[in-house]
Amino acid sequence: MLPPEVLERAQQALVDLDGSGIGILEHSHRGPEFMAVLERTEAAVREVGGIGDEYAVLFVTAGATPHFAWIPQQFLAADQTADYCHTGVWSGKAIEEARRYGTVHIACSGAPDFTTTPTACTWSAAPRYVHYTSNETIYGTQWSAPPTAPAPLVCDASSDIFSRPLPLANHALIYAGAQKNLGPSGISLVIARKDFVETGRTDLPPLDQYRTYVAERSLHNTPNTFGIFVIGETCRWILAQGGVTAMATRNEAKAKVLYDFLDQSKAWKPHAAKGSRSLMNVTFRGATKELEATFLKRAEERGLSGLKGHRSVGGIRASIYNAFPASGVTTLVELLDEVERGSV
Ligand code: PMP
Q1: Taking the model in full, what pTM does it have?
Q2: CATH tag, 243-343
Q3: How far is the CA of 65 from the centre of ligand 1 (A)?
Q4: What does the pLDDT look like over 123-134, one tens digit per residue?
Q5: To test the ligand 1 pocket, which listed residue (60, 90, 311, 321) has its Cβ within 8 A of the most ligand atoms?
């Protein structure tokens, strides 16, 4: 979900951006109206994330997946090693891509069940960087704090960006597809230390180098102007709610209601172990397939959608991103309880 207020502003901007009489899709990306959007979006991202000048804020016209390849392609030479934390499907995909470019050392692994984010990591002798996925969207596990690593951290924060304070310390690069907590699909936010970006390869096509985005302020070619507009409005909404600290408090309270219910239930069993549980994606299974099917059918009837677990793991997954209301969690828990008691 995105905040209804943001969707309304986006709707208005499609027709008339900031009273200019022309919609966001129609404005030139070099004109003063869009420049104002870009500036206020970057300012809002910086304010929400507490991001200083040593970091660049980049808007990249792509989902999160291309970054799995762009990062090792730029920063991992064939004779170097990067350490990867393997906590689920998305970090697994990042590992596969990195193997094309250099040596990948698996520092820790939650395989095969992926119920935890491992606490003990074994690092290689001199990793170029350490990659981790802060929230594994499919298994519903989340790092409660970043790993303590001997090298710059690179984080895929696609599914929990700005759901809690951004742990910038020790991070060289954080990337996130926008489509969970920020805006539309097909655009990603990258927060990158400028000095780290400078250490990347220089012989790649310009759009495969983060330095191009830094040098040209994400305007080397036409960016996803609408996506940038929505990210800006979402960040302004987060600030109006009290910022990421307030988001974290809300998200913890929402998730607690659901996990507390699951922990006492006889019919529903949470997937993630305590201490590794995601506040964004709550994954669980029913005692029987029939129970799950009944629940999914009733959920649709009550206006709760998207609860079927990812096709690779099955079960149920409740995605309760920033904009998902506490009342929605209450409705969900009531329905789970009713199905368990056989009263629907
Ligand atoms: N990383 C994570 C953590 C994700 O949740 C997703 C998408 N669900 C991706 C990467 C891939 O994103 P995209 O589809 O935008 O490439």
Answers
A1: 0.97
A2: 3.90.1150.10
A3: 6
A4: 999 999 999 999
A5: 90
